[in-house]
Amino acid sequence: MPVLSEDSGLHETLALLTSQLRPDSNHKEEMGFLRDVFSEKSLSYLMKIHEKLRYYERQSPTPVLHSAVALAEDVMEELQAASVHSDERELLQLLSTPHLRAMLMVHDTVAQKNFDPVLPPLPDNIDEDFDEESVKIVRLVKNKEPLGATIRRDEHSGAVVVARIMRGGAADRSGLVHVGDELREVNGITVLHKRPDEISQILAQSQGSITLKIIPATQEEDRLKDSKVFMRALFHYDPREDRAIPCQEAGLPFQRRQVLEVVSQDDPTWWQAKRVGDTNLRAGLIPSKQFQERRLSYRRATGTLPSPQSLRKPPYDQPCDKETCDCEG
Length: 329
Known about the structure:
The protein is α+β, with helices and mostly antiparallel strands and 329 residues long.
């Protein structure tokens, strides 16, 4: 096996590892699976980006000036006022092009670190009906993407609670919303007497800054509990045809032999996964391995041994407690 140098990066290491995978009669399927995963272009691009960022951190470059646009405008004024020669005319034309001006604007934005989102101040008319320790005001920046959380109505208390946080979504990236949190207001609109689908519509229509008033759960979700497993799908799955899934819009459709990255197994019935190579960073719901095996076993048994009891809907095909989300269908 070739020897890597100390300067070899992750990209070269991954390429070398892929080239060394040889078919094995005892582990042919596993080797093919690893080769497919390591050969994904998205993984190669991520490795290259990682190396560029590490190189940037080691170099620690600092901008020479923080206002390149202002300097370019001053130079253009000097060139327009002075006698213009061929070189000066070419420089003036270059500085006037929109692409160069846009590049200088980006430079100033990065140099001045103005790329972080700016949140407006909290409104002054926030109700103080609850204790300060029990109410939390959460401000999120949400663009055209869904919030990445499902909600449901609690059967006992009637409260609207967060049922699930989808990995990779806006709510997950913020780290401010957890499973079990009670939702009271969305952008100043009370949700106590609204249906979950009405609340999801409000969330879906909200763009930019979104303010949530929530009562934190007694035990917050353990965000450090993160598991990533790659597996190859052995069947086709369409969440629109699954009566048991709690939220069809949050389901992840996939085809047989597609490689999936399981990012959360917190729920023993519904895992969260992403398709390898998919540009969508937000995960979707898929049936867990144990749940799918039990469901298939039940269907095989009832198909081969029909009985009066099998005429009833099996528990694996019955609609469960439904959740609502603002994901696009």
